[in-house]
Structure formats: C-alpha cells, structure tokens
C-alpha cells in the first residue's frame, strides 16, 4: 500500500513538473487510448468489463496519465458483490 501511494505522489509531481494541459495530454494519446477515452466519455460511467477485450490493456496507461479513475461499487442494490467501474477524472481546467 505504501509503495502505491508513493508512486501516485511521484506521478502527480511528475505531471505538475511537465505542466501538461488536458488538451496537450489528449493530443499525445495513441489511437487505441483515444478510442477507449471517448468510449468512457460517451458513457460517463462504464463497467470495466464492458470495454472490448483487445482494448482493455490501455486502461492502466490512461489511469497513469490521470485521465481515468477506477472505482468499485455495487452493480445492483441487492448484490453484495462490487464491480469495477471507470469514469473520467475530474479536472480543474475549463
């Protein structure tokens, strides 16, 4: 757990040092990363398992770049099992 928090803080410092805006970051995405980003953008909230299998590999890179976030929630009110969902990370930029 400690290593994970350290890695996240290092990535935050790294992104701040680069001073990349959201527009610059979107321009630097690969074709597959852009397709997955737009898929989540259209859906607003998407189950991780609903992403096509061959495109699911880019999710960690989008999370590392700070564009997506992964969280768990109950799929239905009566199910005790939680599933992973994806949504766009909120930014302060207009």
Describe the structure.
The chain has 94 residues and is α+β, with helices and mostly antiparallel strands. It has a single domain (2-88), classed as Arc Repressor Mutant, subunit A. Helices cover 45% and strands 17% of the residues. The protein contains four helices and three strands; from the N terminus they run H-H-H-E-H-E-E. Strands 1-3-2 form a three-stranded antiparallel β-sheet. Strand 2 and strand 3 form a beta hairpin. The radius of gyration is 14 Å and the shape is elongated. The model is unreliable at 1-5 (pLDDT under 50).
User: Strand fraction band?
Assistant: 15-25%
Termini separation: 33 Å
Number of helices: 4
Global outline? elongated
Could you list the spans in which at least 5 consecutive residues all have pLDDT below 50? Answer: 1-5
Number of self-contained structural domains: 1
- Radius of gyration equals 14 Å
Which fold does the CATH topology refer to? Arc Repressor Mutant, subunit A
What's this, in brief?
This protein has 94 residues and is α+β, with helices and mostly antiparallel strands. It has one domain (2-88): Orthogonal Bundle (Arc Repressor Mutant, subunit A).
């Amino acid at each position: 757990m400690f290593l994970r928090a350290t890695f996240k803080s290092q990535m935050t410092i790294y992104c701040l040092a680069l001073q990349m805006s959201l527009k610059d970051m979107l321009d630097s995405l690969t074709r597959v990363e852009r397709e997955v980003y737009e898929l989540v953008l259209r859906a607003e909230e998407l189950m991780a398992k609903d992403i096509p299998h061959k495109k699911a590999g880019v999710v960690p890179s989008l999370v590392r770049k700070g564009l997506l976030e992964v969280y768990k929630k109950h799929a239905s009110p009566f199910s005790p099992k939680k599933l992973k969902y994806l949504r766009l990370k909120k930014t302060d930029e207009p």
